[in-house]
């Protein structure tokens, strides 16, 4: 009943590009990069407070302190946009690696307890040290995310039958619930920390200063490089442990490094923007539908598509409601239906 | 199983199940008495009982009946409702994880109540109504999405879609809290945790009325189904309108969750754990509605007692969340695939 959803094994390298070949994929990546650039410009230009399109570039590179549009672009939208790129890349890539590692299309950082663990750690740190430093958030969120992810995997893999997609999601729900209860308890103990925490908890790109982006940047870069280097070993893992070993891969090392990448990426993204659900689920799903299961394509495409979608959700949130809708809300409301579609598409035997 | 006959009437009963129910009722009642006795001004259990049978002195009687009894009664009734609805949903989805708190019904109920508290600013009655509406709408949505022609509502699909709905509504709830004034938001967050603090008869009485209707209805409706003991085909062959009975049971179950949530907030995990514990205690296959309901009452009353005696005051939802989550993790790691589905 709960057997893992079987994915087709990765195609051989010659076929990886499909009939379109390598050039088509380079073209596709270039196109996606162009779309990302357009989204970035849109993110700088759109929002409350009118900014003429002509003031966007000057606002970024040589802001005039007396000009209101320049200040809006440089002080508010630029930090928000670069943070969106970093967080989007981190979450999209983390989702792709997580799904490849667990061979589970339903794996999602937000559903596997990672957010709950990060939130609990952040609230403990805010409550006990009263520091309001993003770097402390980052470390706390790392530890929380890592602990939660390991716990979920251990619980999901322990029972008879191993870690199936549904079991992992449910183990995630269990761990998330315990952590949410503890977080609520701690938060209620110190009403002082509640004021800041409630805004972190909703998941948003807005209202963050440039320093937040700069603090998480090294972690996102390191995680991204590690994840991209894992593309080939992850392909081997997709063939199953036996076949992979026979071909000379080391599944144990791949899993450990992959988990490290996921935790670093999720931890930094969640620390900076708060919990943002369903992005890591949706992006690899869309990418796999388009380019097939070869991780050498899935990972770079996810890396580029995720920030497009996250910034898109952020822009959408800015224009949909007068008071702005936080990014986390928009992704939850767009992502949950997609998750439902995926569950419905699954064969009854699997789901 | 034994059958008692008195003329034309006969009742079948099982000594073990009856004994379990008796013990559970005793545990629930004792926990409630201890809850009433706990607080700034401790009252010994005999004194509490004396007041309850109408023989206490005036000061103690005021503290007991006006201040503390509503809390204990709300806890017992909410636990009863949660345990019963958990048993109903787990039996309908044929899945121990198909409990209303995991599949978004409780979260939806909370969304309804939060909208009322923070946006429309209605009173206790309006909050109850919105909470019920939120729960019903969520249930309808989850069922519709999980329904597939030919296959009906499949257990695991229902649970996973419910988990997605819960995540979405959770985001909505967080959003509502950020839009509120700090103090209101804090109170709403407290309410969202699930709490019995400061409950008075305004909460206990409507809950009692709802239960007086829904509990007998659910017990009667569940009987012909044999609750998983026969299976659909056999029941159908015996002349039971399976689909209609199931639809009515779902309505009763949603009503029970909504009533409990309106009174005590979304207390997590009681609905999940109670039916499972009841099944293990009665050692019978299939859902045990009455034992599950009593287990729910005993669990919530005991959790409330624990929350009152923690070194720092915590809402009861924190206690049930931690204990229940740990229980769910244990359940997942010990059951095989068959047991899960």
From TrEMBL, chain B:
One of its GO terms (cellular component) is plasma membrane. It is found in: Cell membrane. Gene3D superfamilies: ABC transporter involved in vitamin B12 uptake, BtuC (1.10.3470.10). It holds the Pfam family FecCD. GO terms for molecular function: transmembrane transporter activity. The keyword Transport applies. Keywords: Cell membrane, Membrane, Transmembrane, Transmembrane helix, Transport. It comes from the Bacteria. This is Iron complex transport system permease protein. It comes from Actinomadura soli.
